[in-house]
């Protein structure tokens, strides 16, 4: 079976603490950690109406669209999902598919906030991928925007 999933506002909902924790666990050095922390936390949004500033807020989560580093940071967040799926494959909870006998097993393809899962059409695989996606969405505080089979 093939499942295409799109996450609602995935870039906007990335929790900074989660991202920074992932960076630490991936072995990023202290200097990189500080740089990325600074990129995330040292900006503000100003609201302007009729050329007058009506207020400023400091965001507490999310990745800025248009910031050159944001796609790379999102890839790091998406890698968490990829690793969860790979772990489930290794444990036998999920079964990917082979396009040909000589090919490797493929279970998922990630592109920005769109995910394509290629799994065995079984109740066990449906249950496993649902658990993994629910867990991932809970961490990101998001929901699946569209879910196509």
Automatic annotation (TrEMBL):
Keywords carried by this UniProt record: Nucleotidyltransferase, RNA-directed DNA polymerase, Transferase
One Pfam assignment: RVT_1
Domain Reverse transcriptase: from-to ranges: 1-149
Keyword Nucleotidyltransferase: yes
MF (Gene Ontology): RNA-directed DNA polymerase activity
PANTHER family the record matches: REVERSE TRANSCRIPTASE DOMAIN-CONTAINING PROTEIN-RELATED (PTHR31635)
Protein name: Reverse transcriptase
């Amino acid at each position: 079976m093939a499942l295409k999933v799109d996450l609602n506002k995935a870039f906007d909902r990335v929790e900074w603490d989660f991202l920074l924790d992932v960076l630490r666990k991936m072995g990023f050095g202290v200097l990189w950690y500080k740089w990325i922390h600074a990129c995330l936390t040292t900006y503000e949004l100003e609201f302007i109406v009729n050329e007058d500033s009506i207020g400023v807020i400091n965001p507490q989560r999310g990745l800025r669209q248009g910031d050159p580093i944001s796609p790379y940071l999102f890839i790091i967040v998406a890698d968490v999902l990829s690793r969860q799926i790979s772990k489930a494959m290794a444990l036998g909870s999920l079964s990917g598919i082979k396009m040909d006998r000589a090919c490797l097993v493929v279970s998922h393809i990630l592109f920005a906030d769109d995910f394509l899962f290629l799994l065995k059409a079984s109740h066990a695989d449906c249950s496993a991928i649902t658990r993994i996606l629910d867990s991932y969405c809970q961490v990101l505080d998001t929901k699946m925007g569209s879910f196509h089979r």
